[in-house]
Amino acid sequence: MSSFRFLLSRRWAGFTVFVLILAYGTWWLGQWQFDRLEDRKASNQIVRANEDAEPAPVSDVLAPGEKVAEKDEWRRVSATGMYAVDDTIIWRYRTPDDAKGVDIVVPLVLADGNAVLVDRGWLQTESQDQFEDLPAPPSGEVTITGWVRADGTGDSTDVARVDGYHATRALSSAQVAKVVDEPLLTGWLHLDTESPEPATQLRQADLPELDNGPHFFYGLQWWFFGVLAIAGFFYLMYDERRTQHQDAPAPADDTADGDEPADERSRKKAAKLAQKQAVKAAYQAAYEKDRSGKS
After folding, report:
1. Domain span holding position 231
2. Is residue 62 domain-resident?
3. Helices 215-247 and 10-52, interaxial angle, to 10°?
4. What does the alpha-carbon distance between residue 187 and residue 70 come to, in Å, rounded to a whole number?
5. 175 near 152, Cβ under 8 Å?
6. Strands 115-124, 101-110: pairing kind
7. Is the separation of the CB atoms in 166 and 88 below 8 Å?
8. Residues 225 and 266 placed together within one structural domain of the fold
9. For the residues of 206-237, what is the DSSP string, one character each?
10. Closest to 136 in 3D by CA, of 121, 126, 115, 146
11. Do 191 and 223 fall within a single domain?
């Protein structure tokens, strides 16, 4: 374990904490995407069931002051009444397929005196401040079917007066109720059918897409980033340990020539030295004797 003592340094301690936070963050973001996927599946199931159901009377689904239930989003309902054309609402800045235009919303007054907001469809316009020759809805008693939608929220639901009409950037029955005479059911309807048919048809709203969206792949992507961060940390740790091992001085070797002890090597070296000295002395003696004989 001594070779991993570098992990206790300030630099590596900070790096470890950073990787742990990063790994937790990517795990949390991945789980968030998978939770959104489950919510999307549940919502799609509700929409599919509502789309396949027979239209219900609007008063059985919507009521004044009662929030639209999640299970009733995109439920198909029917209603009979008369359009209050004088209370037409212009829903501004509507851009299907990136085209400029507005939605025309008209309250439909029911037999009991309540009214329901009906988004009759989209109309292309050149201006968001001037509206001329708006297509009129059918006159007299009208029977419609439509898709239930919940109110919008936020400041964009405020209703203003623009070119003689009530106008908003997001539709909320609670805000519209402040400027019209009729008591409104909470929520509103995307128009599906009208009987009798109007002289000029508006573009109808598209039903929501029922795919699962990109949440599954986004979740996998975040988890992959987390695994990559952890794998990178361990690789860098391994590389640091290897570098330190290469840079460290080699320890003294107590053995050589296999497993021979150092003292045995010293003894042999001393013996060889003594032998060399003895041979040298013998040669010296022989040389001196030869020299004496010649003298």
Report:
1. 2-48+213-247
2. no
3. 170
4. 12
5. no
6. antiparallel
7. yes
8. no
9. PPPP-S-TTHHHHHHHHHHHHHHHHHHHHHHH
10. 121
11. no
**Tens-digit pLDDT string for the chain (295 aa):** 556 777 778 888 888 899 999 999 999 999 999 999 998 888 888 888 877 788 999 999 999 989 998 888 899 999 999 999 999 999 999 988 878 899 999 999 999 999 999 999 999 988 888 888 889 999 999 999 999 999 999 999 999 999 889 999 999 999 999 999 889 999 999 999 999 999 899 998 887 777 888 899 999 999 999 999 999 988 888 888 777 766 656 555 555 455 556 677 777 777 777 777 776 676 666 666 666 655 5
Question: φ, ψ for residue 188 (rounded to 5)?
Answer: -155, 175
Residues 41 and 86 in one domain: no
Lookup result for tokens 């009662």: 66
194 three-class SS: strand
- Within a domain: residue 55? no
Q: Return the H-helix or E-strand segment holding 261.
A: strand 260-261
Q: Considering Cα of 7, then 8, then 9, then 13, what sign does the dihedral take?
A: positive
Pairing label, strands 115-124, 184-195: parallel
